[in-house]
From TrEMBL:
Gene3D superfamilies listed in its UniProt record: 2.60.40.1220
Recorded superkingdom: Bacteria
Pfam families: CopC
Species this chain originates from: Microterricola pindariensis
Signal peptide positions on this chain: 1-32
Record keywords, A-Z: Copper, Membrane, Signal, Transmembrane, Transmembrane helix
Transmembrane segments: 176-197
Domain spans labelled CopC: 33-128
Stated name of the protein: CopC domain-containing protein
Length: 201
């Protein structure tokens, strides 16, 4: 009789633990935040021919938003000018900008995108432009064509800053809510375990 009670208690504990795993799994995010998979040209690379198209490809789709997505190509570092028209085009998880480069030197690609889950992902990287002989150079402009992107409320936001990468405060709040939900689910599972064990005893 005692062995049967022990088996029942063990089964109850296993059931409660399984329920806790299910609840915690439901409270966890469905997938990790959007991440960069590839850039063209690659960071820290040496480019000798006009890339034509600059792009950043991420692991998740980007919103086809009229504002928020932005890409700026600037250089050389010694006397920076800006290259390309507009703020880039989104196709799936790729943000791309057509641009021709100017004088040789170190160039910077600065970009920002909005994932379909509303997370903001942004960063910047450098590459070396060493055009081969005969490559046609662009003049560039003094001001970036994507210096200000119009937001939905009529206000304007400047193009992404090189040091301003990652997510905005609203995104961090969402993460806190996910974590809090997971903790609550785990506590409920423990409480259910205690109740079931006491009943079987």
């Amino acid at each position: 009789m005692l062995g049967m009670k022990n088996r029942r208690s063990g089964a109850s504990i296993a059931l409660a633990l399984a329920l806790g795993v299910v609840l915690f799994g439901a409270a966890a995010p469905a997938s990790a935040h959007n991440q960069v998979l590839d850039t063209v040209p690659a960071a820290d690379s040496v480019v000798t021919e006009q890339p034509g198209t600059f792009s950043v490809t991420t692991s998740d789709a980007l919103l086809q938003a009229e504002s928020g997505n932005a890409m700026v190509v600037s250089g050389p570092a010694s006397d920076p000018r800006y290259y390309g028209e507009g703020c880039g085009v989104v196709t799936g998880g790729t943000l791309a900008l057509d641009a021709q480069l100017g004088e040789p030197g170190t160039y910077t690609v600065t970009w920002r995108g909005i994932s379909v889950d509303s997370h903001v992902i942004s960063d910047s990287y450098e590459f070396e432009w060493a055009p081969a002989a005969g490559v046609e150079l662009a003049a560039g402009t003094v001001e970036p064509s994507c210096a200000a992107a119009s937001s939905g409320d009529g206000q304007t936001t400047t193009a992404p800053d090189a040091g301003n990468s990652g997510s905005e405060p609203a995104v961090a709040l969402g993460d806190v809510l996910w974590i809090g939900g997971g903790i609550v689910a785990a506590l409920l599972a423990v409480l259910l375990t205690v109740v079931l064990v006491r009943r079987k005893s």
